[in-house]
Backbone:
């Protein structure tokens, strides 16, 4: 009778939903795509920073002669690139929500803040890449390679990529969390799948810390380039 009962159509389990929003593989792909879009935005700041370097352009030589503090040049370049990338990426997020029907959850207005922090980190990293000498194409190939490579560990390229991303997060969390594009992707995830905003706030703080670190490294590189040029 017990075997017959289990073989019947009677339900023996009750499905439970652990998150406020049901997991969706399509949403994971779109969030990873947002991270890659932010990463590709590094080209803006990389090109902009090369235009103010003394060895790369006449404008950069004039700026060096003018004696403008390096941190002001770097900050102004990053802010300009940041505003441009923020506007573009915000339009991309709006397209995903309105046209593609991507669910951003009940905290959808905070997506703008996630875009703001993601683009800030990307522009800071792009400025650091722009200070590297001898880059072909103004650093575009290097930025593309970095963005595409780091996107593999965010689950962008299908199930195999998602399994690798999950494995890194489970077994090597520090290495996974050190990936700026993973942090950008997780920033969007935290708005959709968490009840509280603490994970989202933590992601924003991590992205801000990365941006500051990239800014400092880029500033040190610019000062070194100026000394070598003189």
Residues:
């Amino acid at each position: 009778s017990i075997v017959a009962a289990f073989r019947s159509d009677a339900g023996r389990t009750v499905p439970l939903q652990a998150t406020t929003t049901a997991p969706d593989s399509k949403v994971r792909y779109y969030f990873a795509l947002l991270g890659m879009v932010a990463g590709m935005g590094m080209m803006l700041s990389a090109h902009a920073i090369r235009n103010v370097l003394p060895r790369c352009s006449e404008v950069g030589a004039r700026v060096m002669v003018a004696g403008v503090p390096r941190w002001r040049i770097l900050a102004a370049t990053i802010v300009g690139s940041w505003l441009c990338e923020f506007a573009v990426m915000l339009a991309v997020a709006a397209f995903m929500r309105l046209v593609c029907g991507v669910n951003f959850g009940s905290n959808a207005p905070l997506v703008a803040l996630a875009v703001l922090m993601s683009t800030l980190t990307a522009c800071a990293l792009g400025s650091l890449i722009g200070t590297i000498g001898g880059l072909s194409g103004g650093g575009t190939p290097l930025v593309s390679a970095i963005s595409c490579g780091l996107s593999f560990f965010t689950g962008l390229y299908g199930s195999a990529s998602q399994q690798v991303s999950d494995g890194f997060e489970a077994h090597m969390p520090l290495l996974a969390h050190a990936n700026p594009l993973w942090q950008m992707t997780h920033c969007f995830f935290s708005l959709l799948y968490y009840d509280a905003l603490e994970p989202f706030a933590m992601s924003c703080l991590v992205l801000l810390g990365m941006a500051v670190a990239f800014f400092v490294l880029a500033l040190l590189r610019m000062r070194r380039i100026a000394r070598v040029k003189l």
